[in-house]
Amino acid sequence: MAQPDVHLPQRRAGVGFLKTARGDTWYIQPLLVLLGLGAFIVYSTWAAFVGVDYHCGVNGANYLSPFYSPLLFDAPGVEPSGHAWFGAWPSWWPAFIPASPALLILWAPGGFRFTCYYYRGAYYKSFWGAPPGCAVGGPHTKRYRGERRLPLILQNAHRYFLYLAIGFLFILAYDAFSAMWFVGEGGAKSFGIGIGTLVLVVNPILLGGYTLGCHSLRHLVGGKKDCISDNGAQKKAYDCVSCLNRGHMRWAWASLFWVGFTDLYVRLCASGVINDVRIF
Amino acid sequence: MGESRDVTFRVWRGDASGGALKDYTTGITTGMVVLDAVHQIQAESAPDLACRWNCKAGKCGSCSAEINGKPRLMCMTRMDEIDTSVPVTILPMQTFPLIRDLVTDVSWNYEVKKRIKKFRPRKPDNADGSWNMAQADVERVQEFRKCIECFLCQDVCHVLREHERHPEFSGPRHFIYTAQLEMHPLDTEDRLGQLKDEQNIGYCNITKCCTKVCPEHITITDNAIIPLKERVVDEFYDPMTRLFRIFKPGKK
Ligand code: SF4
Ligand code: SF4
Ligand code: FES
Ligand code: FES
Hints:
heterodimer; A: 47% helix; B: alpha+beta; Fumarate Reductase Iron-sulfur Protein, Chain B, domain 2; five-stranded mixed sheet; two-stranded antiparallel ribbon; binds iron/sulfur cluster; binds FE2/S2 (inorganic) cluster
């Protein structure tokens, strides 16, 4: 049963790319998103491809960059980090693809963010101009298909990336725990805290706030049912996720910034540009 | 009462066949809203200026317009929150057929609403024909019942405004309405197929303009549209939930 059509002769004159009657600075927010996301994409792509300085073992520290975790293999020519799940770099790796362990895993958290409902809305606006701002004309009038058909219908796979992202949370929490153990004289490990440890501890906390406030998780833990009051635990879980979900945008940005900063910190320590300070 | 200062309003005058913005200057005093100014212009200089209103309290949803390009209720937009050093533009909503001046024909929305499957409660729980519900379960849909049908969300939504998908896309107001029925603890109807194929919820790209303009502050995108999209994924796209359904016959 199709809905009725409407005829809008008054619109014809006013439609067009960036046309709006708004006089305020509506473009600031999409511009900030463009710059923020753009900067992260450039930095993380570079950091993923370089394949070195992802682990800092200076002064007995044990810091692993989150872009490289889980570390399946150590990169060729790099000192073994002790984190590699399957040891040395595989000999079958084709020579024309850069030998960087980040490339093996980064598609999962990358896909999670790419398909996240918050980021979707944000980059459709900032990168795609659909629409550039609220009540501002976009460039796509005739061809618009939304998330109804390929390719964007694939965004509906978000929940599968969520399952992976929850696994990553545990791995990154383990990395934070590992960063509390410093190798001393003769290889003995002792508990300690460095600035890097703190950086690595904050990372899974912010990522947790982001991941556990996911809309798909909210659906999964209770949103899909109309009645959950008869199940106390489920009701609690739904309320918790809903609470984090209300700040999903803020968690998204905080965790995005921090995961990039953590990589940068580990990288700068590992390459000797800065010295990590041991607190105790 | 403070002093009166002169403010210029640039108001759309005309109908579907054409028109133009026309300037009117009127005196503004403390506490006035845009609708007061429009009424004053009617009284002073343009008695034939068409505008629709009823309650002047933000509850009837009649006075929707675009003030300085933003979809808003004229009766809830205070003059002291807008910059009056430049002329204030007032346009009719852009997404519905124009009748005259600031008045549009919003009846398309009523036609769309009629097509949404009606509320179908389960059999009464008690002998006297009443039902039992927990407050915690109805809470979620109570937010949606605040809707005053001002259709500002429909006006701003680019799928209707830009792409004019009126025959296919029912718009945020009707996703709110569908969510209100679909998530109701007593309801037994299944509207997911309709959401996907007739209301075409897939056109919504969750850019949240509807949420931003809603005068009732309903969290349209996060609390209604996205949860409905997730239910549609369960029903039609997720291979795992589809597989589970084979083993759980008869369960919704
Ligand atoms: S979030 Fe969806 S329904 Fe709301 S304005 Fe954007 S596209 Fe339209
Ligand atoms: S959801 Fe909000 S903006 Fe949309 S019609 Fe209802 S009250 Fe108006
Ligand atoms: S919706 Fe943002 S992470 Fe799932
Ligand atoms: S006149 Fe009723 S909402 Fe403005």
